From TrEMBL:
One of its GO terms (molecular function) is DNA binding. The keyword Phosphoprotein does not apply. Keywords: Cell membrane, DNA-binding, Membrane, Transmembrane, Transmembrane helix. The chain crosses the membrane at residues 49-79. This is DNA-binding transcriptional activator PspC. Residues 18-81 form the Phage shock protein PspC N-terminal domain. GO terms for cellular component: plasma membrane. InterPro entries: Phageshock_PspC_N (IPR007168), PspC (IPR052027). It comes from Chryseobacterium taklimakanense.
């Protein structure tokens, strides 16, 4: 007889997280927090990389600060807000 703990992963095996803005752990709009949650990365790492891309974009010809900030604003408007309900999509 299987216990509930043994069966727990069987029902949620095909669930993947949905990319959305995390409104509970936001600093500005929750974009970095949502990306961190989606890729299972610490949010502080995502924020640090985002800041460094924007800061060093001033000195770089490849990635400009305007481009990094523009991508952030586009993601702000495109990504939906996450709710308190467990958001998921089933893989079929």
């Amino acid at each position: 007889m299987e216990t509930y703990q043994n069966q727990n992963n069987k029902y949620y095996a095909n669930i993947k997280p949905k990319l959305s803005r995390d409104i509970t752990n936001k600093r500005i709009a929750g974009v970095c927090a949502g990306i961190g949650k989606y890729f299972n990365i610490k949010v502080s790492w995502v924020r640090t990389v985002w800041f460094l891309l924007a800061f060093f974009g001033i000195f770089s010809a490849g990635i400009s600060t305007f481009f990094v900030v523009s991508v952030y604003f586009v993601l702000w408007f495109i990504l939906p807000k996450s709710s308190n309900i467990f958001l998921c999509e089933t893989e079929r």
